[in-house]
Amino acid sequence: MAAGRWAGAVVRTVRRLLYRDIVWSVAFVAVAFLSLFFFIDFVDELDNVGRNGFTLLHAAIAATLEVPGHLYELSPICVLIGTIYAMARLAQSSEYTILRTGGLGPVRALGLLALLGLFFGAVTFVVGDYLSPLSEREAVQLKASFRGGLALGSTGAWLKERRAGPDGERAISINVARTAANGELEGIRIFEQDSDGRLRTRIDARRARVDADSVWQLADVERTDWPTPEQAAAGAEVRVQRHATVRWPSSLSASVVAAAVLPLSTMSTAELWRYSAHLGDQEQASQRQEILFWKRALYPFACLVMVALALPFAYLHARAGGLSLKVFGGIMLGISFVLLNNVSGHLGMLRNWAPWVAASAPGLVYLALSLAAFTWLVRFR
Mind listing the pLDDT tens digit for each residue in 249-263? Predict the structure, then answer.
């Protein structure tokens, strides 16, 4: 009984030692990276100071709102570098050698780090799914309020839906040119086609607002209706009507419209899933959104891979390289992971890979690399 209590106390002491050093190291690396990126974002925003009332305070707020997004993107790198630094420092001071002599075997060490990796993964998920989308949305709205709205590119944003009409199913395509500073949509064009693909109705509106019940409130509207071939043969003409306001019912909710006009970084994992499902139902290209969904879903597990990749550095002999060299190696590994993670998404779209394959490939590659390095250093050296 006493031996069991002693063994439990030893495990708790070892766990506290490892977790304290690693958490502080990861936090230090995260603060260093975030400070650097804050400075870069702040300098980038200085170009807008003095335009439309944009001040230094607004530039600082905009740069601060970008911090959670950077934290989410950099969390695996911070975990890798911080863990490598902590483990290499323990190895350099022979503390890790003492722990190994005291019974800390490779499997137990990997298990302890795996629990810490799950903790870092949970933090990454919370930041990426809740804090980062909210701050990104606020940053977009802040910048749009001083720039007179949010530009949506040369072609604008496109949405599609299908609905039953008097002559069968109609396909509806909606184009939004930009969003105003107050959140309203501007430059709306709505095209309705019948089941034979003929254009039947076109609605042009200068402004629009989507209510909670998915009804679009259109303002300054011009509606053009084309007759069917049978009606045209009977003498029917194209009809053009103008209205100050029009209520246009739709199945496109405010959340779907926001997903189409706002950057994908403002969406949570669940919102990405719903939006990609909507695009698939409307027969629109959704591979990009599906890949991003799987990346969001699997990205927190990258922290688990990073701690496994960092463990072999504790088994390197002090003469195999100084502490700074090992940290530099961790930085290079982290950068290569980010590059591979970005490249895999583009390759997945070009080669038409399954979205989950494109999203999980970098993590699987680095997991295999970490296990191979762990086996080689621990078992054969």
Answer: 888 877 788 878 888
